[in-house]
Design goal:
Layout lengths: L7 E7 L7 H20 L6 E6 L6 H11 L3 H4 L1 E6 L5 H11 L4 E6 L2 E3 L3 H6 L9 E8 L4 H9 L9 H5 L7 E5 H4 L13 H11 L4 E10 L5 H23 L3 H26 L10 H23 L18
Parallel strand pairs: 1-2, 1-4, 2-3, 6-8
Antiparallel strand pairs: 4-7, 5-8, 6-7
Length: 330
């Protein structure tokens, strides 16, 4: 596992308590306690679990009460502390929690992911090699109906099974990843207006420094996105973020950015068709649902194209992306 006498901490990003589905969170907390118990029995020291949330310090008492009600076993196997970051966005909460963690290795997870058995030991094991600074897990979308299966097929996570080629090229997952503390504290997730751009920028930083991103089969599932409102907003912001990433990585002209929006639309449309047709069976999708799934998938990336094109063309201002109130819990 990790080197002898090495320690680890876990950082759990959590939305403001008003938007949390505690039924789902409880499943993840119980799984987390199970995983900690497993590695503790193998000799690792009792860890600190940092609950990083977007509320105030005063919310800690309520959060602790809710967590204890859902997963009382967590506080029996770990020291649970709370780190407030009022109004913090996703990566702000990650960075906030990292600063409160004290282990030699810091494991990052989310309140809406659920670890499979063996997840934690698989993430920690590569750190026995001193040169490893980043170990990336395997996150997939849970699916049990038409829309969740469609999301699982078109999303940026690989499928749970039968998706080895895509999984081998997966990007880093901020909801399922571990870093050496001395590296990640000096290289936090970069601040950026985008919704999910900071992962890309941190991955570039790792590669520029010559660090290998060690992909392992530390499996966890993420609850599927919900609702048409989320579908609409997430598609648009996916397009805007695609343009932001292109700008950060390639520094293109505005003409090149606009051209890229069209080429990406074609690429993602073809990818969507290929994945739905090719992996519908693995997702448990009946044949008769495939045409409807294709329509939903193409609609998502059609909206993403509009988000990218309108942003690249200067029709939309570059503002900080936050989840709108109308979207609700997703």
């Amino acid at each position: 596992m990790v080197e002898e006498r090495a320690t680890y901490s876990l950082v759990l990003e959590m939305e403001n308590a008003k938007s949390i589905d505690w039924g789902e969170v409880g499943v993840g907390l119980k799984a987390l306690a199970r995983e900690i118990t497993s590695v503790s029995s193998a000799g690792l020291a009792r860890p600190k679990v940092v609950i990083s949330h977007g509320g105030t310090e005063a919310d800690a008492k309520t959060l602790r009460s809710d967590i204890t009600a859902e997963a009382p076993q967590l506080e029996r196997v770990a020291d649970v502390i709370f780190a407030a970051c009022p109004g913090g966005r996703y990566y702000d909460l990650k960075n906030n929690g990292i600063l409160k963690a004290d282990g030699d290795v810091i494991v990052l997870s989310d309140s809406d992911t659920v670890a499979e058995p063996g997840w934690l030991s698989t993430l920690l094991e590569p750190f026995a090699q001193s040169e490893i600074v980043c170990v990336n897990g395997y996150t997939y979308l849970l699916h049990d109906d038409f829309f969740s299966r469609t999301f699982a097929l078109i999303w940026f996570f690989p499928m749970a099974h039968g998706d080895g080629r895509f999984a081998s090229k997966r990007a880093i997952n901020a909801n399922n990843i571990a870093f050496r503390r001395d590296w990640i504290t000096k290289n936090p997730f970069p601040k950026h207006n985008g919704f999910k751009v900071s992962c890309t920028l941190l991955m570039r930083k790792l590669k520029l420094e010559g660090h290998k991103i060690y992909n392992v089969n530390a499996r966890a599932y993420h609850y599927s996105p919900r609702g048409w409102k989320f579908f609409y907003w997430r598609a648009l912001v996916t397009g805007r973020d695609a343009d932001r990433k292109y700008v950060e990585l390639s520094a293109p002209s505005r003409t090149q950015r606009v051209a890229k929006s069209f080429s990406r639309w074609f690429t993602m449309s073809w990818r969507t068709t290929r994945r739905i047709v090719g992996h519908a069976r693995e997702a448990g999708m009946p044949l008769w649902q495939i045409p409807f799934s294709l329509i939903v998938g193409q609609a998502f990336y059609g909206l993403a194209f509009w988000g990218q094109f309108s942003f690249a063309a200067g029709m939309v201002r570059d503002e900080i992306e936050t989840v709108p109130d109308y979207v609700g819990h997703s």
